[in-house]
Every structure is written in structure tokens, then in C-alpha cells.
């Protein structure tokens, strides 16, 4: 399909009409830069200056859409104007065409036109002065510089400022976009962190409540029901306390202070709570002091593993073991596993994903899966400061 030529800008049409009317008024008033008897006037007809004037004015609507074409036609019109008595308006319109060709033209035109006009200015001053052996020949170069070099240099200066402003605007937009991306990533990371903390802190208590409430409802034994209700109450109170701590962490205002971050020193209490919920847990913790992020990750991995064992493991002992080797803290939790057993409480599958994320954030490794007749969770957490 043929492309529709771009429409001229309204300001360019105004410049063309105004220049043409102004040139006609000067012509009608008999104001010309050269006299009819001048030796350079080769076309002495009275209406002759109107031809280059009309051509130059006709090029003005092209100054933004086709600046190079307008400049070429305008140059021919200016050359024609030099063999008539001339018009000042024609020269003024031509300087605007040179300026527009640099400002609105291609980058190649913006580079070449100032260089070409500079060379013409030098040649226009040196060559006539050398041929005529008259210093006044330099005035021709001055005239070329005023008509061609000055508007070209002005156009180049304005274009450079415009390009610099556009580059600054683009940089500002990119900076704003990067800031928004950083903000979005920070919000996403914070949401994931809160989701992990919420799951790890509350899932254990809710799973114990679900399992013991099922036992209390299914067994018609007052003693068993009383023991189950005691466990349910204990886990309800602890779960409510954990939720309050999390709300205190998330609250913007108020004087609530978040609780201390869990450490490996609390593993014994964690295991004791699992035993209260009915698990047969043994703990073997042979480790030295570890960085706080590593200790928190290890604590949460053990906590989630015990929660999964409470919901899914078959009857039998659950073993928790921690040890250090080769700059790593190893966390290993194993529990009885029988394929096909139905879970005692529903699960969302987010626990394994959360443990894997915790290990990955520290640059460690995480594996979980069946080994023989036991389900094994094994995490390797780096202890180095760089990690």
C-alpha cells in the first residue's frame, strides 16, 4: 500500500504564508538588496524575484516532514535569487530551511550540513580574496557564514540540547521503571517471607488441633477426649500467641515489639511440643554456634518436618539430627513412611516449597523424599559469612 505523505505542521504553513506575503510587500515597495543595473543581475525582469521567493516559501511546509528535500529546492531557489535584484525574505526563509534541515533531519544530515556550510564559508571568503587580491572578498565568506553556517550551527546546538533532554527523560523513565520493578520484587519477596513464617508458625499447631479433634470425635472415651482437648487447648493458645507475634511484626504503628527470632537453642522445646502432640521424637543436635539466618532456617525446617511427620508419618520413631561438616550445617529429619497411607490432616503442599526456599536463600541445598521405609528431609546450609 502507498504511504500517505506526512501533513505539514500548521506553524510551517503560517511561516510560508507570512514569508510569501512579506516578500510580496517588499517587492511591491521596491525594496531589493541589489539594483537593476548591478552587473550580477542577469535576470532583470521586474517580477523575477517573485519566482525564487515563491519556491522558497513553498519549501517551508516541508521543513519538518521532508527537510532535506526542502533544503535542496531552497538552495536552487537561492541560487536563482542571486541573478535577480533579490529579496531579503528569500534569504531569511532559506536560513530557516538550513536550520530546520539540521534540527529535524536525519542524524547524518545533522552531522554533514554544518561541516559543508563551514567549508563553503571558508572557501567563500578565501577564494574570492585570493583571486581578486582584495581583502573585501572575505565579505563573501562572511555572507555565506551568516546565511548558511550560522543557522546550521544554531540547529545543531538546539538538536544537541533536545537530544540531551530526550535522553534525560528516557533515563528518568528507566529509573522509575527499575524502581517500580524493585518495589514489586521487594513486595513479592516480603509476601513470600511472611507466607513462610505464617505457615511454619501456625501449621504445626493447627495440624495438632485437627488430629486430636478427630481422635476426640471418633473415640467414645472420656479420658481420651479429655487428653485430646487438653492438647487442642495448648496448641490453640500457642497458635494464637504466634499469630499475635506475627501481627506485631507486620503492624506499622503501635508499641508492640516483635518476639525474638527462633534459634537452634529452642529445638529442645520444639521437640518436646511434638512429643506432647503424640510423636516419638529423638533429637541429636551436635553443632556449634551458627549465624542467625542459618539458625532460623534450620529451626523452621525442623519445625515443618515435625509438622509433616505429625500429619503424614506412620507409627514409629522420628529422628532429628543436626551436625556441622565442611562449612555446612546439616539438618536431617526422618520419619516412618508407608506409601498409600492417608494423611491424618489435610496439607497444602506449601511446606516443602517453603523449606526449599529457605535453603535456596542461603545458597544451600534441600532434598526430601522416601528412602527405604522412611521419609527423609535433608538440608545443607552454608555457614560462611559470604553465603
What portion of residues is helical?
55-70%
Counting structural domains, the number is: 2
Low-confidence stretches: 253-258
Query: Kindly state the mean pLDDT as a whole number?
Result: 83
Strand order of the largest sheet: 1-2-3-5-4
Overall number of strands: 5
Structural class: alpha+beta
Largest sheet data: 5 strands, mixed
Kindly report how far apart the N and C termini lie.
61 Å
β-sheet strand percentage: 5-15%
State Rg: 44 Å
Task: Report the order of strands and helices.
Answer: HHHHHHHHEHEEHEE
Rough shape? rod-shaped
Work out the helix count: 10
Topology:
Layout: H1 10-28, H2 50-59, H3 67-81, H4 88-104, H5 107-132, H6 138-218, H7 222-250, H8 267-276, E1 280-286, H9 292-312, E2 317-325, E3 328-336, H10 350-361, E4 365-371, E5 374-382
Parallel strand pairs: 1-2
Antiparallel strand pairs: 2-3, 3-5, 4-5
Helix pairs in contact: 1-2, 1-4, 2-3, 2-4, 3-4, 4-5, 4-6, 5-6, 6-7, 6-9, 8-9, 9-10
Quick structural overview:
The chain is α+β, with helices and mostly antiparallel strands. The chain is 62% helix and 11% strand. The longest helix is centred in the middle third of the chain and has 81 residues.
Amino acid at each position: 500500500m502507498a504511504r500517505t505523505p506526512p501533513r505539514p505542521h500548521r506553524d510551517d504553513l503560517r511561516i510560508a504564508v507570512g514569508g510569501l506575503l512579506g516578500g510580496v510587500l517588499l517587492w511591491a515597495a521596491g525594496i531589493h538588496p541589489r539594483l537593476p543595473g548591478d552587473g550580477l543581475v542577469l535576470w532583470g525582469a521586474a517580477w523575477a524575484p517573485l519566482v525564487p521567493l515563491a519556491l522558497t516559501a513553498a519549501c517551508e511546509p516541508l521543513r519538518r516532514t521532508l527537510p532535506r528535500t526542502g533544503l535542496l529546492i531552497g538552495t536552487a531557489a537561492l541560487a536563482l535569487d542571486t541573478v535577480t535584484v533579490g529579496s531579503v525574505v528569500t534569504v531569511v526563509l532559506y536560513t530557516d530551511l538550513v536550520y530546520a534541515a539540521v534540527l529535524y533531519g536525519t542524524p547524518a544530515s545533522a552531522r554533514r550540513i554544518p561541516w559543508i556550510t563551514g567549508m563553503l564559508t571558508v572557501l567563500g571568503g578565501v577564494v574570492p580574496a585570493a583571486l581578486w587580491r582584495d581583502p573585501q572578498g572575505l565579505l563573501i565568506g562572511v555572507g555565506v557564514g551568516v546565511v548558511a553556517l550560522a543557522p546550521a550551527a544554531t540547529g545543531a546546538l538546539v538538536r544537541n540540547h533536545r537530544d540531551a533532554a530526550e535522553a534525560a527523560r528516557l533515563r528518568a523513565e528507566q529509573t522509575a521503571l527499575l524502581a517500580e520493578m524493585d518495589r514489586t520484587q521487594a513486595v513479592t519477596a516480603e509476601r513470600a517471607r511472611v507466607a513462610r513464617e505464617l505457615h511454619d508458625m501456625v501449621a504445626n499447631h493447627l495440624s495438632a488441633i485437627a488430629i486430636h479433634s478427630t481422635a476426640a470425635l471418633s473415640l467414645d472415651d472420656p479420658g481420651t477426649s479429655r487428653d485430646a482437648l487438653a492438647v487442642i487447648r495448648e496448641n490453640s493458645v500457642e497458635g494464637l500467641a504466634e499469630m499475635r507475634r506475627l501481627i506485631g511484626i507486620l503492624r506499622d504503628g503501635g508499641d508492640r515489639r516483635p518476639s525474638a527470632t527462633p534459634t537452634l537453642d529452642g529445638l529442645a522445646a520444639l521437640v518436646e511440643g511434638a512429643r506432647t502432640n503424640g510423636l516419638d521424637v529423638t533429637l541429636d543436635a551436635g553443632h556449634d554456634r551458627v549465624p542467625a539466618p542459618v539458625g532460623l532456617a534450620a529451626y523452621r525446617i525442623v519445625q515443618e518436618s515435625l509438622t509433616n511427620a505429625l500429619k503424614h508419618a506412620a507409627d514409629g520413631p522420628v529422628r532429628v539430627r543436626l551436625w556441622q561438616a565442611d562449612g555446612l550445617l546439616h539438618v536431617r529429619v526422618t520419619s516412618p513412611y508407608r506409601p498409600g497411607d492417608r494423611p491424618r490432616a489435610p496439607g497444602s503442599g506449601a511446606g516443602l516449597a517453603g523449606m526449599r526456599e529457605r535453603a535456596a536463600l542461603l545458597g544451600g541445598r534441600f532434598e526430601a523424599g522416601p528412602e527405604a521405609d522412611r521419609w527423609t528431609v535433608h538440608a545443607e546450609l552454608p555457614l560462611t559469612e559470604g553465603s
